[in-house]
Specification:
The chain is mostly helical. The chain contains 10 helices and no strands.
């Protein structure tokens, strides 16, 4: 008995044919097609997350007249932190917090054998100094421009805490190569911390992970430097940026202010 061959299901009208081009519209170039595809993807994500409102609130805001390059020091500090985080992740892929020689040998391996290892290590090493310099300049600009006054006192306090945490990041990261210079410099720094009133001895014991320097001291510094401090700094940077967007930025002290200047809304207008 011959097998019956069923006909193929009908295709929807216009399925095998592309959409007709509108008359008078030139053919799009590949870059234009890619740009439209990117816009479509962004629209698709925004329709499901509604992130565009928050992005517009954060980015598109009024700034006072007279704003100059001094106001970019905060952004430069944030990008320095991002650079430190990215290069630190790549270094952590090869670093071993082993006080019995593994830490020093891993750093030597990064600099001598890993592709672009010396470059990434140099970016991280000198980037820490750049970040410290930038955050000091940013704090100085905030102080001399009077940006710490009402209603921005909380943002100033967060900035001071970020300054302290940045110094702690530099201090804990200095020991990680675990050579003679970093070891004895850290010994001196921890002993100086131990001379502080009340909490000084407890702070030294916490940093040493015991009464004396040992193998666990390096692991303690690595955990603080790699996990604890970056998380706290990232959260405080988020709060700092939120307050900057909410309260606005102050006008330079030499800028002539309008009359009845007494609220942040008038300042941003």
């Amino acid at each position: 008995m011959p097998k019956l061959k069923l006909p193929a299901p009908p295709l929807p009208p216009g399925f095998p044919k592309p959409a007709p081009k509108r008359p008078g519209v030139p053919q799009q170039k590949p870059l234009e097609v890619a740009a439209e595809a990117g816009i479509s993807v962004v629209d698709w994500v925004d329709e499901r997350t509604s992130l565009s409102g928050g992005a517009r609130w954060m980015m598109f805001r009024k700034v006072p007249k007279g704003t100059n390059w001094f106001y970019t020091l905060g952004s430069a500090t944030m990008f320095a932190f991002i650079s430190q985080a990215v290069t630190g992740v790549f270094l952590a892929m090869y670093y071993r917090p082993d006080a019995a020689g593994g830490a020093y040998e891993s750093m030597r391996h990064i600099n001598d054998n890993v592709f672009l290892g010396e470059f990434v290590h140099g970016m991280h090493k000198w980037g820490s100094s750049v970040m410290v310099i930038l955050i000091f300049l940013h704090m100085a600009r905030t102080f001399f421009f009077g940006a710490y006054k009402y209603p921005r006192e909380l943002n100033w306090i967060i900035g001071v805490v970020l300054l302290i945490l940045t110094m702690a990041m530099s201090f804990t990261g200095y020991l990680l190569p675990f050579d003679q210079r970093s070891y004895w410099a850290t010994v001196v720094g921890v002993n100086i911390n131990g001379t502080g009133p009340l909490v000084g001895p407890y702070l030294s014991d916490f940093l040493r992970a015991g009464p004396e320097f040992g193998a666990t001291t390096l692991s303690r510094f690595y955990a603080i430097h790699m996990m604890l401090l970056p998380g706290i700094i990232g959260a405080l940077i988020g709060a700092h940026l939120y307050l900057v967007a909410k309260l606005g930025t102050t006008a330079p002290p030499w800028q002539k202010l309008p009359e009845a200047y007494d609220t942040p809304e008038e300042e941003r207008a």
